[in-house]
Amino acid sequence: MNATEGLRALPPFGIDTDRTGRLGPPLAALARRLQGRYPVDPFGGDPQLQDALAPLVEAAVRVEVDHPERLPERGSALLVANRGFGILEPAVLATAVRRAVGRRLRIVGAPEAPVVGDLVRKLGAVAAYPTDLAAVLRAGHLAAVPLGPTWLRAGAGTPPIGLLRAALDVRVLPVAVRPGGPLGLPLRPFRVRVGRPLARRVPRGSTDPLAAAELGEAARDAVQALLDGADP
Amino acid sequence: MRVLVTGMGGELGTRVSQLLEEHPEVTEITGVDIVPPRRRLRRAGFARIDPADRERLAAYVTEFAPDALVHFGVYEPHSRLVPRQAAVRTHQFTVTALGAAARTGRLERVAVRSGLVVYGRGRGRPAVPDETVPVAPTTLYGRMCLEVESLAVELGRRHGFPVAAIREAPVAGSHVPSPLGRVLRLPVVPVPACADPTFSLLHTEDAARAMVQAILVGYDGPLNVVGPGAASVWQAVRLGGRIPAPVVGPGWAVATRLAEVAGAPVPDHVLELLRRGRTADGSKAQAVLGLAGMRSTTEVCTEIFEWATVTPLRPPAAVAV
What domain range includes position B23? Predict the structure, then answer.
Protein backbone atom coordinates (compact mmCIF):
# COMPACT_ATOMS: atom_id res chain seq x y z
CA MET A 1 0.00 0.00 0.00
CA ASN A 2 1.43 3.41 -0.91
CA ALA A 3 1.02 6.57 1.13
CA THR A 4 -1.95 7.90 -0.79
CA GLU A 5 -3.85 4.60 -0.55
CA GLY A 6 -3.29 4.76 3.20
CA LEU A 7 -4.79 8.25 3.30
CA ARG A 8 -7.83 7.18 1.38
CA ALA A 9 -8.59 4.42 3.84
CA LEU A 10 -8.97 6.88 6.70
CA PRO A 11 -10.99 9.95 5.73
CA PRO A 12 -11.40 12.14 7.70
CA PHE A 13 -8.27 10.80 9.37
CA GLY A 14 -10.14 9.16 12.27
CA ILE A 15 -10.91 12.47 14.00
CA ASP A 16 -14.56 13.44 14.56
CA THR A 17 -15.33 17.03 13.63
CA ASP A 18 -18.26 17.21 16.09
CA ARG A 19 -17.26 15.04 19.08
CA THR A 20 -14.08 15.60 21.01
CA GLY A 21 -11.43 12.92 21.21
CA ARG A 22 -8.00 12.14 22.54
CA LEU A 23 -4.96 13.48 20.77
CA GLY A 24 -3.03 10.21 21.02
CA PRO A 25 0.74 9.88 21.43
CA PRO A 26 2.31 13.33 20.93
CA LEU A 27 4.95 12.16 18.46
CA ALA A 28 2.40 10.34 16.31
CA ALA A 29 0.13 13.42 16.41
CA LEU A 30 3.04 15.63 15.38
CA ALA A 31 3.90 13.28 12.51
CA ARG A 32 0.29 13.40 11.28
CA ARG A 33 0.41 17.16 11.50
CA LEU A 34 3.54 17.39 9.39
CA GLN A 35 2.07 15.02 6.80
CA GLY A 36 -1.19 16.99 6.59
CA ARG A 37 -3.21 13.99 7.83
CA TYR A 38 -5.76 15.87 9.92
CA PRO A 39 -9.29 17.06 9.13
CA VAL A 40 -10.26 20.67 8.51
CA ASP A 41 -13.88 21.71 8.17
CA PRO A 42 -15.24 24.34 5.75
CA PHE A 43 -15.53 26.88 8.59
CA GLY A 44 -11.81 26.63 9.27
CA GLY A 45 -12.12 24.41 12.36
CA ASP A 46 -9.13 22.19 13.14
CA PRO A 47 -10.31 19.37 15.45
CA GLN A 48 -6.82 17.93 15.98
CA LEU A 49 -5.49 21.30 17.16
CA GLN A 50 -8.55 21.70 19.41
CA ASP A 51 -7.89 18.29 21.00
CA ALA A 52 -4.24 19.26 21.50
CA LEU A 53 -5.04 22.55 23.25
CA ALA A 54 -8.10 21.42 25.25
CA PRO A 55 -6.15 20.11 28.28
CA LEU A 56 -4.30 23.44 28.57
CA VAL A 57 -7.54 25.45 28.41
CA GLU A 58 -9.26 23.13 30.91
CA ALA A 59 -6.35 23.57 33.30
CA ALA A 60 -6.48 27.37 32.98
CA VAL A 61 -10.26 27.82 33.06
CA ARG A 62 -12.15 26.30 35.99
CA VAL A 63 -15.81 25.63 35.24
CA GLU A 64 -18.83 24.25 37.11
CA VAL A 65 -21.91 23.38 35.04
CA ASP A 66 -25.51 23.42 36.29
CA HIS A 67 -27.99 21.23 34.35
CA PRO A 68 -25.51 19.71 31.89
CA GLU A 69 -28.20 17.16 30.96
CA ARG A 70 -30.00 19.93 29.03
CA LEU A 71 -27.18 20.17 26.47
CA PRO A 72 -27.94 18.01 23.41
CA GLU A 73 -25.60 15.06 22.90
CA ARG A 74 -26.14 15.10 19.15
CA GLY A 75 -27.71 17.24 16.45
CA SER A 76 -27.74 20.97 15.90
CA ALA A 77 -28.71 23.46 18.60
CA LEU A 78 -27.91 27.06 19.44
CA LEU A 79 -26.79 28.32 22.84
CA VAL A 80 -27.44 32.00 23.57
CA ALA A 81 -25.20 33.25 26.36
CA ASN A 82 -24.20 36.48 28.09
CA ARG A 83 -20.65 37.76 27.85
CA GLY A 84 -18.34 40.47 29.08
CA PHE A 85 -15.57 42.10 27.07
CA GLY A 86 -12.80 39.68 26.14
CA ILE A 87 -12.56 36.01 25.31
CA LEU A 88 -13.19 34.44 28.72
CA GLU A 89 -16.89 33.57 28.30
CA PRO A 90 -16.44 31.81 24.92
CA ALA A 91 -13.56 29.76 26.37
CA VAL A 92 -15.60 28.93 29.48
CA LEU A 93 -18.64 27.93 27.43
CA ALA A 94 -16.61 25.73 25.08
CA THR A 95 -14.93 24.04 28.06
CA ALA A 96 -18.29 23.46 29.77
CA VAL A 97 -19.78 21.87 26.64
CA ARG A 98 -16.69 19.77 26.08
CA ARG A 99 -16.79 18.50 29.65
CA ALA A 100 -20.57 17.96 29.81
CA VAL A 101 -21.35 16.26 26.50
CA GLY A 102 -17.98 15.80 24.77
CA ARG A 103 -18.84 17.99 21.79
CA ARG A 104 -17.07 20.84 20.05
CA LEU A 105 -18.81 24.20 20.39
CA ARG A 106 -18.83 26.57 17.41
CA ILE A 107 -18.77 30.10 18.82
CA VAL A 108 -20.09 32.75 16.45
CA GLY A 109 -18.04 35.92 16.18
CA ALA A 110 -14.62 35.18 14.65
CA PRO A 111 -12.99 38.49 13.67
CA GLU A 112 -11.84 39.12 10.10
CA ALA A 113 -8.28 39.87 11.22
CA PRO A 114 -5.41 38.14 9.39
CA VAL A 115 -3.73 36.10 12.12
CA VAL A 116 -6.18 36.18 15.03
CA GLY A 117 -9.16 35.43 12.79
CA ASP A 118 -7.56 32.28 11.37
CA LEU A 119 -6.42 31.13 14.80
CA VAL A 120 -9.82 31.44 16.49
CA ARG A 121 -11.49 29.77 13.51
CA LYS A 122 -9.10 26.85 13.93
CA LEU A 123 -10.19 26.68 17.57
CA GLY A 124 -13.86 26.44 16.52
CA ALA A 125 -15.11 29.98 16.04
CA VAL A 126 -17.29 30.94 13.08
CA ALA A 127 -17.63 34.32 11.36
CA ALA A 128 -20.66 36.34 12.48
CA TYR A 129 -22.68 36.02 9.28
CA PRO A 130 -26.20 34.55 9.27
CA THR A 131 -25.24 32.42 6.24
CA ASP A 132 -22.28 30.90 8.06
CA LEU A 133 -24.34 30.22 11.20
CA ALA A 134 -27.08 28.60 9.10
CA ALA A 135 -24.47 26.39 7.41
CA VAL A 136 -22.97 25.37 10.77
CA LEU A 137 -26.39 24.39 12.09
CA ARG A 138 -27.30 22.54 8.88
CA ALA A 139 -24.09 20.56 9.30
CA GLY A 140 -25.41 19.36 12.69
CA HIS A 141 -23.05 21.30 14.96
CA LEU A 142 -23.69 22.83 18.37
CA ALA A 143 -23.20 26.60 18.06
CA ALA A 144 -23.21 29.49 20.51
CA VAL A 145 -24.18 33.11 19.90
CA PRO A 146 -23.16 35.65 22.53
CA LEU A 147 -25.49 38.47 23.49
CA GLY A 148 -24.00 41.95 23.39
CA PRO A 149 -21.14 42.38 25.91
CA THR A 150 -21.88 44.01 29.28
CA TRP A 151 -19.59 45.65 31.85
CA LEU A 152 -18.68 43.44 34.82
CA ARG A 153 -20.71 40.61 33.23
CA ALA A 154 -23.68 41.80 35.26
CA GLY A 155 -26.53 41.27 32.79
CA ALA A 156 -27.73 39.93 29.47
CA GLY A 157 -26.79 42.14 26.52
CA THR A 158 -28.49 43.01 23.25
CA PRO A 159 -29.63 39.98 21.25
CA PRO A 160 -28.15 39.62 17.72
CA ILE A 161 -31.42 39.57 15.79
CA GLY A 162 -29.79 39.14 12.36
CA LEU A 163 -27.99 36.01 13.45
CA LEU A 164 -31.04 34.56 15.19
CA ARG A 165 -32.94 34.62 11.89
CA ALA A 166 -30.66 31.76 10.85
CA ALA A 167 -31.63 29.72 13.93
CA LEU A 168 -35.43 29.73 13.88
CA ASP A 169 -35.41 26.06 12.90
CA VAL A 170 -33.28 24.68 15.72
CA ARG A 171 -33.40 24.22 19.48
CA VAL A 172 -32.30 27.38 21.28
CA LEU A 173 -31.04 27.14 24.87
CA PRO A 174 -30.29 30.13 27.10
CA VAL A 175 -27.07 29.89 29.06
CA ALA A 176 -25.74 32.11 31.84
CA VAL A 177 -22.00 32.36 32.43
CA ARG A 178 -20.94 33.90 35.77
CA PRO A 179 -17.47 34.29 37.19
CA GLY A 180 -17.13 33.07 40.77
CA GLY A 181 -15.35 36.15 42.13
CA PRO A 182 -16.78 39.53 43.20
CA LEU A 183 -17.40 42.31 40.61
CA GLY A 184 -17.28 39.80 37.79
CA LEU A 185 -13.66 38.91 38.40
CA PRO A 186 -12.67 35.32 37.58
CA LEU A 187 -11.16 34.53 41.00
CA ARG A 188 -13.16 31.35 41.62
CA PRO A 189 -14.51 28.78 39.11
CA PHE A 190 -16.95 30.06 36.51
CA ARG A 191 -20.51 28.82 36.91
CA VAL A 192 -22.34 27.92 33.71
CA ARG A 193 -26.13 27.51 34.06
CA VAL A 194 -27.96 25.89 31.16
CA GLY A 195 -31.63 26.84 30.83
CA ARG A 196 -34.55 24.96 29.33
CA PRO A 197 -34.99 25.14 25.52
CA LEU A 198 -37.00 28.15 24.39
CA ALA A 199 -40.39 27.46 22.87
CA ARG A 200 -40.38 27.63 19.06
CA ARG A 201 -43.37 29.52 17.70
CA VAL A 202 -42.67 29.57 13.95
CA PRO A 203 -42.95 26.85 11.31
CA ARG A 204 -39.78 25.18 9.99
CA GLY A 205 -37.95 27.08 7.28
CA SER A 206 -39.15 30.47 8.48
CA THR A 207 -36.80 33.47 8.38
CA ASP A 208 -39.41 35.91 9.67
CA PRO A 209 -37.58 38.95 11.15
CA LEU A 210 -40.35 39.50 13.70
CA ALA A 211 -40.01 35.90 14.90
CA ALA A 212 -36.25 36.41 15.18
CA ALA A 213 -36.79 39.58 17.22
CA GLU A 214 -39.21 37.73 19.52
CA LEU A 215 -36.73 34.87 19.87
CA GLY A 216 -34.00 37.39 20.73
CA GLU A 217 -36.14 39.01 23.44
CA ALA A 218 -37.11 35.62 24.84
CA ALA A 219 -33.45 34.56 24.91
CA ARG A 220 -32.35 37.76 26.64
CA ASP A 221 -35.09 37.43 29.28
CA ALA A 222 -34.21 33.78 29.88
CA VAL A 223 -30.47 34.53 30.20
CA GLN A 224 -31.20 37.41 32.58
CA ALA A 225 -33.43 35.15 34.69
CA LEU A 226 -30.66 32.55 34.86
CA LEU A 227 -28.18 35.25 35.89
CA ASP A 228 -30.63 36.35 38.62
CA GLY A 229 -30.75 32.82 39.96
CA ALA A 230 -34.14 31.72 38.61
CA ASP A 231 -34.65 28.66 36.38
CA PRO A 232 -37.23 29.72 33.78
CA MET B 1 -34.56 14.31 -25.40
CA ARG B 2 -31.98 15.81 -27.77
CA VAL B 3 -29.05 17.17 -25.79
CA LEU B 4 -26.36 19.55 -27.01
CA VAL B 5 -23.14 19.61 -24.96
CA THR B 6 -20.94 22.64 -25.53
CA GLY B 7 -17.36 22.18 -24.37
CA MET B 8 -17.58 18.42 -24.98
CA GLY B 9 -13.82 18.16 -25.51
CA GLY B 10 -12.94 18.88 -21.89
CA GLU B 11 -12.59 16.25 -19.18
CA LEU B 12 -15.96 17.20 -17.71
CA GLY B 13 -17.79 17.65 -21.00
CA THR B 14 -16.66 14.21 -22.17
CA ARG B 15 -17.66 12.53 -18.90
CA VAL B 16 -21.07 14.24 -18.89
CA SER B 17 -21.64 13.00 -22.44
CA GLN B 18 -20.71 9.45 -21.40
CA LEU B 19 -23.16 9.59 -18.48
CA LEU B 20 -25.92 11.02 -20.70
CA GLU B 21 -25.41 8.13 -23.12
CA GLU B 22 -26.51 5.75 -20.33
CA HIS B 23 -29.95 7.36 -20.03
CA PRO B 24 -32.55 5.96 -22.44
CA GLU B 25 -34.63 9.15 -22.28
CA VAL B 26 -31.72 10.96 -23.94
CA THR B 27 -32.34 9.96 -27.53
CA GLU B 28 -29.64 12.00 -29.22
CA ILE B 29 -26.47 13.74 -28.05
CA THR B 30 -24.11 15.96 -29.93
CA GLY B 31 -21.33 18.24 -28.82
CA VAL B 32 -19.10 21.06 -29.98
CA ASP B 33 -15.74 22.25 -28.75
CA ILE B 34 -12.39 23.53 -29.92
CA VAL B 35 -10.74 20.19 -29.06
CA PRO B 36 -12.06 16.64 -29.58
CA PRO B 37 -13.52 14.53 -26.73
CA ARG B 38 -11.00 12.92 -24.41
CA ARG B 39 -12.60 9.47 -24.37
CA ARG B 40 -14.60 7.21 -26.62
CA LEU B 41 -18.25 8.11 -26.96
CA ARG B 42 -20.67 5.43 -28.20
CA ARG B 43 -23.77 7.36 -29.22
CA ALA B 44 -22.78 10.99 -29.13
CA GLY B 45 -21.82 12.99 -32.19
CA PHE B 46 -19.20 15.73 -32.18
CA ALA B 47 -18.26 18.72 -34.30
CA ARG B 48 -14.98 20.53 -33.86
CA ILE B 49 -15.97 24.18 -34.17
CA ASP B 50 -14.14 27.23 -32.97
CA PRO B 51 -16.69 29.56 -31.34
CA ALA B 52 -15.02 32.43 -33.19
CA ASP B 53 -16.66 30.93 -36.29
CA ARG B 54 -20.07 32.12 -35.16
CA GLU B 55 -21.96 31.40 -38.37
CA ARG B 56 -20.84 27.77 -38.45
CA LEU B 57 -21.56 27.27 -34.76
CA ALA B 58 -25.00 28.87 -34.99
CA ALA B 59 -25.84 26.83 -38.10
CA TYR B 60 -24.79 23.58 -36.39
CA VAL B 61 -26.86 24.33 -33.27
CA THR B 62 -29.87 25.45 -35.30
CA GLU B 63 -29.77 22.31 -37.43
CA PHE B 64 -29.56 20.05 -34.37
CA ALA B 65 -32.37 21.99 -32.56
CA PRO B 66 -31.73 20.67 -29.05
CA ASP B 67 -34.37 20.16 -26.35
CA ALA B 68 -31.70 20.51 -23.66
CA LEU B 69 -28.39 22.31 -23.56
CA VAL B 70 -25.48 21.49 -21.26
CA HIS B 71 -23.14 24.45 -21.42
CA PHE B 72 -19.56 23.54 -20.60
CA GLY B 73 -18.12 26.09 -23.01
CA VAL B 74 -16.91 28.05 -19.98
CA TYR B 75 -13.13 28.05 -20.00
CA GLU B 76 -11.26 28.50 -16.73
CA PRO B 77 -8.33 30.89 -17.28
CA HIS B 78 -5.00 29.08 -17.51
CA SER B 79 -6.72 25.69 -17.57
CA ARG B 80 -6.36 25.20 -21.32
CA LEU B 81 -6.36 28.80 -22.56
CA VAL B 82 -4.68 31.99 -21.38
CA PRO B 83 -7.08 34.34 -19.53
CA ARG B 84 -7.85 36.66 -22.44
CA GLN B 85 -8.57 33.81 -24.86
CA ALA B 86 -10.60 31.98 -22.18
CA ALA B 87 -12.80 35.04 -21.63
CA VAL B 88 -13.32 35.63 -25.37
CA ARG B 89 -14.07 31.96 -26.17
CA THR B 90 -16.45 31.68 -23.22
CA HIS B 91 -18.34 34.78 -24.29
CA GLN B 92 -18.53 33.64 -27.93
CA PHE B 93 -19.67 30.12 -27.01
CA THR B 94 -22.30 31.38 -24.58
CA VAL B 95 -23.81 34.03 -26.80
CA THR B 96 -23.78 32.03 -30.04
CA ALA B 97 -24.73 28.56 -28.80
CA LEU B 98 -27.36 29.62 -26.28
CA GLY B 99 -28.80 32.24 -28.60
CA ALA B 100 -29.07 29.85 -31.56
CA ALA B 101 -30.56 27.10 -29.40
CA ALA B 102 -33.14 29.44 -27.87
CA ARG B 103 -34.17 30.78 -31.28
CA THR B 104 -35.09 27.29 -32.50
CA GLY B 105 -38.03 27.40 -30.09
CA ARG B 106 -37.46 23.78 -29.06
CA LEU B 107 -35.21 24.42 -26.07
CA GLU B 108 -36.84 23.15 -22.85
CA ARG B 109 -34.01 23.28 -20.31
CA VAL B 110 -30.46 24.52 -19.84
CA ALA B 111 -27.69 23.73 -17.37
CA VAL B 112 -24.61 25.96 -17.34
CA ARG B 113 -21.25 25.51 -15.69
CA SER B 114 -20.43 28.17 -13.15
CA GLY B 115 -18.22 28.33 -10.07
CA LEU B 116 -18.03 29.36 -6.44
CA VAL B 117 -15.90 32.23 -7.78
CA VAL B 118 -19.13 34.17 -8.41
CA TYR B 119 -19.43 34.83 -4.65
CA GLY B 120 -16.09 36.62 -4.47
CA ARG B 121 -13.86 36.76 -1.43
CA GLY B 122 -13.83 40.47 -0.66
CA ARG B 123 -14.09 41.82 2.88
CA GLY B 124 -17.43 41.34 4.57
CA ARG B 125 -18.28 38.24 2.57
CA PRO B 126 -19.48 35.07 4.35
CA ALA B 127 -16.95 32.25 4.46
CA VAL B 128 -19.46 29.52 3.61
CA PRO B 129 -22.06 31.10 1.29
CA ASP B 130 -25.23 29.33 0.27
CA GLU B 131 -27.24 30.02 -2.88
CA THR B 132 -29.11 32.95 -1.27
CA VAL B 133 -25.95 35.05 -0.85
CA PRO B 134 -25.74 37.86 -3.44
CA VAL B 135 -22.97 37.29 -5.97
CA ALA B 136 -20.04 39.74 -6.07
CA PRO B 137 -17.17 38.24 -8.09
CA THR B 138 -13.71 39.62 -7.43
CA THR B 139 -11.78 37.81 -10.18
CA LEU B 140 -11.85 37.50 -13.97
CA TYR B 141 -13.15 33.90 -13.85
CA GLY B 142 -15.84 34.94 -11.38
CA ARG B 143 -17.01 37.70 -13.70
CA MET B 144 -16.96 35.26 -16.64
CA CYS B 145 -19.13 32.76 -14.76
CA LEU B 146 -21.52 35.48 -13.66
CA GLU B 147 -21.87 36.71 -17.24
CA VAL B 148 -22.66 33.17 -18.42
CA GLU B 149 -25.24 32.73 -15.66
CA SER B 150 -26.84 36.11 -16.32
CA LEU B 151 -27.10 35.55 -20.08
CA ALA B 152 -28.59 32.09 -19.65
CA VAL B 153 -31.08 33.22 -17.00
CA GLU B 154 -32.16 36.16 -19.14
CA LEU B 155 -32.67 33.88 -22.15
CA GLY B 156 -34.57 31.42 -19.97
CA ARG B 157 -36.82 34.16 -18.65
CA ARG B 158 -37.60 35.40 -22.16
CA HIS B 159 -38.19 32.00 -23.73
CA GLY B 160 -39.68 30.30 -20.68
CA PHE B 161 -37.23 27.48 -19.90
CA PRO B 162 -35.49 26.62 -16.60
CA VAL B 163 -31.78 27.34 -16.21
CA ALA B 164 -29.66 25.45 -13.68
CA ALA B 165 -26.44 27.28 -12.80
CA ILE B 166 -24.06 24.71 -11.36
CA ARG B 167 -21.60 26.62 -9.18
CA GLU B 168 -18.77 24.14 -8.84
CA ALA B 169 -15.94 24.14 -6.36
CA PRO B 170 -12.62 23.86 -8.22
CA VAL B 171 -12.64 20.57 -10.10
CA ALA B 172 -9.34 18.83 -9.61
CA GLY B 173 -7.69 15.45 -9.97
CA SER B 174 -4.65 13.80 -11.41
CA HIS B 175 -5.93 13.97 -15.02
CA VAL B 176 -7.84 17.24 -14.92
CA PRO B 177 -6.10 20.26 -16.42
CA SER B 178 -6.41 22.73 -13.57
CA PRO B 179 -4.28 25.75 -12.67
CA LEU B 180 -4.76 24.99 -8.96
CA GLY B 181 -3.57 21.41 -9.44
CA ARG B 182 -0.47 22.61 -11.31
CA VAL B 183 0.43 25.03 -8.52
CA LEU B 184 -0.06 22.41 -5.79
CA ARG B 185 2.12 19.94 -7.73
CA LEU B 186 5.09 22.31 -7.78
CA PRO B 187 7.95 21.08 -5.57
CA VAL B 188 7.77 24.32 -3.56
CA VAL B 189 4.31 25.86 -3.17
CA PRO B 190 3.63 29.48 -2.12
CA VAL B 191 1.37 29.67 0.95
CA PRO B 192 0.18 32.63 3.03
CA ALA B 193 2.62 33.26 5.89
CA CYS B 194 0.04 34.69 8.31
CA ALA B 195 -3.04 32.67 7.42
CA ASP B 196 -4.22 29.17 6.65
CA PRO B 197 -7.39 29.61 4.59
CA THR B 198 -9.66 26.67 3.80
CA PHE B 199 -10.98 25.62 0.43
CA SER B 200 -13.18 22.86 -0.97
CA LEU B 201 -12.66 20.80 -4.11
CA LEU B 202 -14.91 18.73 -6.33
CA HIS B 203 -14.18 15.41 -8.00
CA THR B 204 -14.69 15.21 -11.77
CA GLU B 205 -17.16 12.35 -11.43
CA ASP B 206 -19.29 14.25 -8.88
CA ALA B 207 -19.23 17.39 -11.03
CA ALA B 208 -20.40 15.36 -14.03
CA ARG B 209 -23.13 13.60 -12.02
CA ALA B 210 -24.41 16.93 -10.73
CA MET B 211 -24.64 18.39 -14.23
CA VAL B 212 -26.41 15.31 -15.62
CA GLN B 213 -28.92 15.27 -12.76
CA ALA B 214 -29.56 19.01 -13.11
CA ILE B 215 -30.37 18.66 -16.81
CA LEU B 216 -32.48 15.51 -16.35
CA VAL B 217 -34.65 17.02 -13.58
CA GLY B 218 -34.76 20.43 -15.30
CA TYR B 219 -33.71 22.30 -12.17
CA ASP B 220 -34.22 26.05 -12.18
CA GLY B 221 -31.80 28.25 -10.21
CA PRO B 222 -28.27 28.21 -8.85
CA LEU B 223 -26.79 25.24 -6.97
CA ASN B 224 -23.48 25.02 -5.13
CA VAL B 225 -21.80 21.68 -5.85
CA VAL B 226 -19.00 21.17 -3.36
CA GLY B 227 -17.06 18.14 -2.17
CA PRO B 228 -17.75 17.38 1.51
CA GLY B 229 -15.28 18.78 4.01
CA ALA B 230 -12.40 21.11 3.28
CA ALA B 231 -8.65 21.34 3.29
CA SER B 232 -6.40 24.18 4.32
CA VAL B 233 -3.70 25.50 2.01
CA TRP B 234 -0.85 24.45 4.32
CA GLN B 235 -2.46 21.04 4.80
CA ALA B 236 -2.86 20.47 1.06
CA VAL B 237 0.81 21.21 0.47
CA ARG B 238 1.84 18.78 3.21
CA LEU B 239 -0.54 16.10 1.91
CA GLY B 240 1.37 16.14 -1.34
CA GLY B 241 4.74 16.06 0.39
CA ARG B 242 5.59 19.46 -1.07
CA ILE B 243 7.52 22.25 0.64
CA PRO B 244 5.41 25.23 1.75
CA ALA B 245 7.02 28.61 1.01
CA PRO B 246 5.44 31.29 3.27
CA VAL B 247 4.72 34.50 1.37
CA VAL B 248 3.51 37.92 2.53
CA GLY B 249 2.22 41.01 0.72
CA PRO B 250 4.31 41.98 -2.32
CA GLY B 251 6.05 38.60 -2.17
CA TRP B 252 3.01 37.14 -3.94
CA ALA B 253 3.90 38.97 -7.16
CA VAL B 254 7.34 37.35 -7.10
CA ALA B 255 5.93 33.94 -6.12
CA THR B 256 3.35 33.90 -8.93
CA ARG B 257 6.01 34.94 -11.46
CA LEU B 258 8.32 32.15 -10.30
CA ALA B 259 5.44 29.65 -10.44
CA GLU B 260 4.70 30.73 -14.01
CA VAL B 261 8.34 30.24 -14.99
CA ALA B 262 8.14 26.77 -13.39
CA GLY B 263 5.17 25.90 -15.60
CA ALA B 264 2.27 26.70 -13.29
CA PRO B 265 0.76 30.11 -14.15
CA VAL B 266 -1.42 31.42 -11.32
CA PRO B 267 -4.61 33.19 -12.50
CA ASP B 268 -6.17 35.68 -10.11
CA HIS B 269 -8.92 33.31 -8.91
CA VAL B 270 -6.32 30.70 -7.89
CA LEU B 271 -4.24 33.38 -6.17
CA GLU B 272 -7.38 34.46 -4.32
CA LEU B 273 -8.04 30.87 -3.26
CA LEU B 274 -4.50 30.48 -1.95
CA ARG B 275 -4.66 33.75 0.01
CA ARG B 276 -8.28 33.81 1.21
CA GLY B 277 -9.68 30.31 0.65
CA ARG B 278 -12.92 29.36 -1.07
CA THR B 279 -15.71 27.07 0.04
CA ALA B 280 -19.52 27.05 0.14
CA ASP B 281 -22.52 25.23 1.54
CA GLY B 282 -23.40 22.46 -0.92
CA SER B 283 -26.14 20.79 1.12
CA LYS B 284 -28.96 21.99 -1.15
CA ALA B 285 -27.46 20.43 -4.27
CA GLN B 286 -26.90 17.14 -2.45
CA ALA B 287 -30.58 17.06 -1.44
CA VAL B 288 -32.08 18.33 -4.70
CA LEU B 289 -29.91 16.31 -7.08
CA GLY B 290 -29.54 13.23 -4.84
CA LEU B 291 -25.76 13.36 -4.86
CA ALA B 292 -24.96 10.62 -2.34
CA GLY B 293 -21.43 9.35 -1.77
CA MET B 294 -19.57 12.40 -3.02
CA ARG B 295 -15.80 12.28 -2.65
CA SER B 296 -14.43 14.44 0.13
CA THR B 297 -12.16 17.40 -0.49
CA THR B 298 -9.20 15.64 1.15
CA GLU B 299 -9.72 12.63 -1.17
CA VAL B 300 -9.72 14.92 -4.21
CA CYS B 301 -6.72 16.78 -2.82
CA THR B 302 -4.87 13.49 -2.40
CA GLU B 303 -5.77 12.50 -5.95
CA ILE B 304 -4.14 15.66 -7.31
CA PHE B 305 -0.79 14.18 -6.36
CA GLU B 306 -1.56 10.71 -7.74
CA TRP B 307 -0.51 9.51 -11.12
CA ALA B 308 -2.07 6.32 -12.41
CA THR B 309 0.30 3.39 -12.86
CA VAL B 310 0.90 2.55 -16.51
CA THR B 311 0.04 -1.07 -17.18
CA PRO B 312 1.35 -2.31 -20.57
CA LEU B 313 -1.23 -4.28 -22.54
CA ARG B 314 0.05 -7.70 -23.55
CA PRO B 315 -0.82 -8.96 -27.02
CA PRO B 316 -2.95 -12.12 -27.01
CA ALA B 317 -0.92 -15.36 -27.11
CA ALA B 318 -2.61 -16.64 -30.23
CA VAL B 319 -4.42 -14.61 -32.83
CA ALA B 320 -6.98 -16.34 -35.01
CA VAL B 321 -6.46 -15.56 -38.66
Answer: 2-171+203-226+279-292
